[in-house]
C-alpha cells in the first residue's frame, strides 16, 4: 500500500490554517509523524481517516483518490483516535464482537476474528473481564483491536501512549511493532520515544508544514556534536536555558545535572555525549523552525 499526499491544505472557519502544502509519501511498514502539540498532526490523521475533508490538495491511498472513493478507502483502514469510547459493562470479547458486527463481519466469522484480534493485541487472557476493569494500557490495546477487527491494510493511530505508565507504554509499542510487520501503520505523536522504539521512517510536522522527512538515523546525524551533559548551580539554569535547549534536568544537592543541545555557553564544563533521537529532534526544531519545546512536554509521565 502506498499513501501519496500532494499539496494538502486545511483551513478552518475563521481563517485558521492547520495544514500548509503538505507533501508526503508513505509505503509499507510503520511510519512516525512527530511534532509538538498544535502542529496539525491530528488534523492530518482525521483527513486520512476520511473524518474531515481537506480544503485543497490530493490524497491517493492504494491508488484511490480519497475525494472520490471515500467509502471504499474507509473499508481498508482502521483508526484509533486519541480518545475513543467503549461500553464499560461489556467484556473485551463482547465489545469486539459488537464492533465486528457493525463492520459487516458475518456471525459465523465473528468468534474467530475476535479471538485472533485479541491475541494480536495481547488481550486474549482478559477477554472475559469487563472493560471498566481494564487499565489504561489495556484500553489503548482494545482501541487498536477495534480498529483492526475488519482486517484493514492501513492503521492510523493518533497519540496512542499519552497517559500510559512506562510499562504499559512499552507493551503498547511492542504490539504496534508486531502489527507493523504486516500492515501500514501511521503513528502520530509528540512523544519522541514512541518513534524511536517503533519507526524506521518519520516526518516532522511543525505549524502545519512538513519540515523533515527521513530516517531517525539521518536526523540524529544532524545533531552530531550538539548534545552535552553539564553540572551547574541551580541559579545558572536560566542562563543556560536562554541559549541552549534543555532536554532533562536532575536536581543533585544544590546542583543541577542537565542534558542539553546546542552551542555551549562559556564558563561551564560541558561534557559531549552521543546524540539520541530526542536530542536530535529538539536541536532540529530550534535550528530549523525556531520552536523551543518545554522539557516537561518530553517526559513520558502518566496523565
3D structure, described in words:
With 303 residues, this protein is of the alpha/beta class. Helix content is 32%, strand content 28%. It has a 6-stranded mixed β-sheet with strand order 6-7-8-3-9-10, with helices on both faces. A 4-stranded antiparallel β-sheet has the order 2-1-4-5. The longest helix has 14 residues, at 107-120.
Q: What would the keywords be for this entry?
A:
alpha/beta; 4-stranded antiparallel sheet; 14 strands; 28% strand
List the helices and strands and how they pair.
Layout: E1 3-11, E2 17-26, E3 30-34, H1 41-48, E4 56-61, E5 64-65, H2 70-75, E6 77-80, H3 92-102, H4 107-120, H5 136-148, E7 154-158, H6 166-179, E8 184-189, H7 192-198, E9 201-206, E10 209-214, H8 216-221, E11 227-233, H9 237-241, E12 245-252, E13 255-261, E14 270-272, H10 277-289
Parallel strand pairs: 3-8, 3-9, 6-7, 7-8
Antiparallel strand pairs: 1-2, 1-4, 4-5, 9-10, 11-13, 11-14, 12-13
Helix pairs in contact: 3-4, 5-6
Number of strands: 14
Number of helices: 10
**Strands across the major sheet, in which order?**
6-7-8-3-9-10
Largest sheet: 6 strands, mixed
Tertiary shape: globular
Mean pLDDT figure: 90
Structural class of the secondary elements?
alpha/beta
pLDDT < 50 stretches = none
How far apart the termini lie comes to 35 Å
Radius of gyration: 21 Å
Helical coverage, percent range: 25-40%
The amount of beta strand, in percent, is 25-35%
